[in-house]
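seq:
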Amino acid sequence: MSIIIGLTGQSGAGKSTVSRVFTQEGFAVIDCDAVARRVTEAGSDCNRELSEYFPECFDESYVLDREKMARIVFSDRESLELLERIEFKYITAEINRIVEELSEKSDYIVLDAPTLFEAGIDGSCDVTAAVLSDEQLRLGRIMQRDGVSAELAKKRFSSQHDEDFFREKCTLIIENNGTLAEAERSAQEAARTIKGMFGNACKDIKNS
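struct:
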């Protein structure tokens, strides 16, 4: 049995950097965005169900037009909630399968999940951590990383929780308002804090 860490935060905050450092610290990391992409591959059961509600976002082979879907859901809260309800069902099932596999060999498993709370995955976590960063910094990162306009990036932000939500909900907060080196140091500190919190529990599990 492994310690499960839910890693979340707003778009552009720096979760990828933190995940990379956690990997270096010996944590197994599940990229939940990558899982989401897998469950929405052409012809998947998830896509077939989504096509019933968003037919304009799919062709006859059930290939998802992600850009078209993004324009719809980031402009309409009800559409976003519907998309999430359907996708989360498939994503959660796949994450649980991967966790079961990894638990045989990893003491610590990180769920890098931007929608950790929306999907209800936080309920299976032993600790939750949020990466937070100033909005202007996040905006610049998203525009550079994804090649999107400031308008579309801000639409993404408007569909997400604010900082106060994460500060209230999460066990640990990792601030990322400085240099890359500073972000890496903060992530290292967080990883070591988590090991300090659960180190004895991992030893007990191994010895049981």
